[in-house]
Amino acid sequence: MPTDAEFLAFRNEDNGKPFAARQDLGERLRKRWPEKADRLAFCEWSSARANKQLEEREMTNISPEELTEMLATMNFNDNIARGKLVNTLERSVVPWLPVGRDRAGTIYRIVPGAYGLLPDQQDPKTDRELVSMNVLGVNTNVQPKIPSRSRKGNLSEMSTQSNESDDSDYAGFVFHQIGNLEFWGGNLDNLRSYEDAAKGTWFPTHFYAVMRFGRNGAANGVYVIFDFYPENENLMERQRIDHDDWGYLPSSVTDEQITFAKIADKITDLRFGRTFDFAEALDYPVELVRAVKTPENAIIRVTVA
Questions:
Q1: Does residue 167 have a pLDDT over 50?
Q2: Of 139, 195, 201, 286, which is the most exposed, with the fewest CB atoms less than 10 Å away?
Q3: What is the pTM of this model?
Q4: CB atoms within 10 A of CB 304
């Protein structure tokens, strides 16, 4: 029976080969270990090793300060950096981030996650490499037909023009999803510390927090965007809202509907004790689109209007 050291040597040698040369693992295993029992032993060893690595990653603690630092300093154009961020945001245990208090006194937090919002077209036609849907783009000069809303100016219902221009920040931007926006639903007198907040009652706002970033990959503001594709619990699938009950903030006293707003210039601004505005707010549905890589390794929206 091969030893663990022999299994590891085979795995390391295999990982060092080009991707095309690693396609037929079964054939390579048969050449290395003709005996079926040895090949089965390798598969069991490999599975146990992968499970252990996953468990170690899940158990690795990260503080809110460390997560904030990661979001503030990373290059969002970098595939490896984004992969590490997604692994962090999608852990079973990950610290939430305090946001602050709005002008009406409602307190908010972000519960991390990388896959909350969906684009209006999940499989657009493009010759460029699509980026994973943890990164999307928003077109603020496009107003989808559903849900119905009085149309603003000359806004189109769908973007169709490929985004070939360097002016990628015109009427929208690309962003990385970072988590659900929730609001405190308990007695404010009971919220005196981070520990109190962790044990308290929080409710969903149906808005998702995102990090805007520019063509250089640097963070450029924290925004919230309304989720127009909530899960239908009866059908166990996500469907676009077709009614007018959307975009209401818990502290709204004017019944104002918004789909999009900026809540901070920098992720490091977020904290309990700060008061913030929902700035740059839009009161009509906006279009979310997939993002693509450019030859220069930047990320842009797949289509614009």
A1: no
A2: 195
A3: 0.76
A4: 23
